[in-house]
Specification:
This protein has eleven helices and nine strands. With about 400 residues, it is α+β, with helices and mostly antiparallel strands. The strands form two sheets. Strands 1, 2, 3, 4, 5, 6 and 7 form a seven-stranded mixed β-sheet that branches. A two-stranded antiparallel ribbon has the order 8-9. InterPro entries: ACX4-like, Acyl-CoA_DH_CS, Acyl-CoA_Oxase/DH_mid-dom, Acyl-CoA_Oxase/DH_mid-dom_sf, AcylCo_DH-like_C, AcylCo_DH/oxidase_C, AcylCoA_DH/ox_N, AcylCoA_DH/ox_N_sf.
């Protein structure tokens, strides 16, 4: 069985129930055996290891939290640790998993009818069908709630979607894409499940990325794409419903940031013990120890924050601002940690051979997606002052 994480300095993992910890260790062992050895290669080639999807499915963790699916429900703490563990191995694989289970499955679970949930969730849980989530647009990111240009026009029992989406993870090979579009009749944002090979739907891989290169992000074009009424998510009737999905998944990104921090810290720690300069391991130098302790402090503080957030989620008392603060804080601390780790490795920090270069690049994507630091700051600022600074 896989060992504990070196970076969990305060042993937060001990807060998990015994059976949940066994699940976490099983996933950790899989990631270390199957994902870590190939992560750099697939990242460098900007390809996704599709052969691992069946093995991910065999872990039996996709969609565990949804009431519609059988099996014991994990705590939010276990769900968080799983997100952290995946990012600790490879942020690209963590993003693939988060898009599929959190955004795509989460949209169907939260906004779909009973028939829709029964139709799609079991196959998605078994990872026989892979999902994507199409919200961001070429000219709309932070302002997509009010500036969404993708439209949906009803014609009898069919909806006609027109527009474009950008940065859509998994979209090049997804079986189902949850597309958000503005109803031309009432002006409200609604959700639609667009199935693979639907006429009028095109997904083109985004090339030349410098972060999350294994994630197959796509530009999506919707040109008279006809979707049956049966594929309109019945509970998605305004952007407030969309925001509810993002609130839940935003906390997952904070957990991913902690995973990246712990990986960067552990890489730097191992390097400091092995790398010699001036006849001694560089870990004996005061400035190097200072960097390591700064990294550990950031990771530990962030892990404490997301652990408490998970407890609030399980208690049913967490709010938008709780997820927003965690996402903003943890991703900012993550940027510092990967930078310090790169600094400690010096020139070796910019080549994939030592792993840290991949985490430095991937951190930039985590810092931006699921709400920028600035947008999340305004969510928290509105909560603490009672005054909105949104334009």
């Amino acid at each position: 069985m896989a060992e504990l994480l070196t970076g969990d300095f305060y042993a937060f993992e001990d807060l998990l129930a015994d059976d949940e910890r066994e699940t976490l260790l099983r996933v950790r062992e899989f990631l270390r055996d199957k994902v870590v050895p190939i992560a750099n290669d697939y990242w460098a080639r900007a390809e996704f290891p599709t052969h691992l999807v069946k093995e991910y499915a065999g872990l039996g963790i996709a969609g565990l939290a949804f009431e519609e699916l059988p099996g014991p429900k994990p705590s939010s703490l276990l769900s968080g640790f799983l997100a952290m563990e995946m990012a600790h191995a490879d942020a690209s694989m963590a993003t693939f998993y988060g898009v599929h289970t959190g955004l795509a499955m989460g949209s169907i679970a939260a906004c779909g009818s009973a028939e829709q949930r029964a139709r799609w969730l079991p196959a998605m849980s078994a990872m026989e069908q892979i999902g994507a989530f199409a919200l961001t647009e070429p000219d709309g990111g932070s302002d997509v709630s009010g500036g969404m240009r993708t439209t949906a026009r009803r014609e009898g029992d069919t909806w006609v979607l027109d527009g474009a989406k950008r940065w859509i993870g998994n979209a090049t090979f997804a079986d189902l894409v949850v597309v958000w579009a503005r109803d031309t009749e009432d002006g409200h944002v609604k959700g639609f499940v667009v199935e693979k090979d639907t006429p009028g739907f095109t997904a083109t891989k985004i090339e030349n990325k410098i972060a999350l290169r294994s994630v197959q992000n796509a530009d999506i074009t919707l040109d008279g794409c006809r979707v049956p009424e049966a594929n309109r998510l019945e509970g998605a009737n305004s952007f407030r419903d969309t925001a509810g999905i993002l609130r839940r998944t935003r906390s997952g990104v904070a957990w991913q940031a902690v995973g990246v921090m712990l990986a960067a810290y552990e890489i730097a720690l191992d390097y400091a013990k092995e790398r010699e300069q001036f006849g001694r391991p560089i870990g004996k130098f005061q400035l190097v120890q200072d960097l390591l302790v700064r990294m550990l402090g950031n990771a530990t503080a962030s892990l404490g924050m997301v652990t408490r957030l998970a407890q609030l989620q399980d208690a049913g008392t967490y709010r938008d601002e709780h997820s927003a603060l965690a996402k903003a804080y943890c991703t900012t601390r993550m940027r510092e940690v990967v930078g310090w780790a790169r600094e400690l490795l010096a020139g070796n920090g910019i080549v994939l051979d030592y792993d840290i270069g991949r985490f430095v690049a991937d951190a930039e994507a985590l810092y931006s997606y699921e709400g920028t630091r600035e947008i999340n700051t305004l969510i928290v600022g509105r909560a603490v002052t009672g005054l909105s600074a949104f334009v």
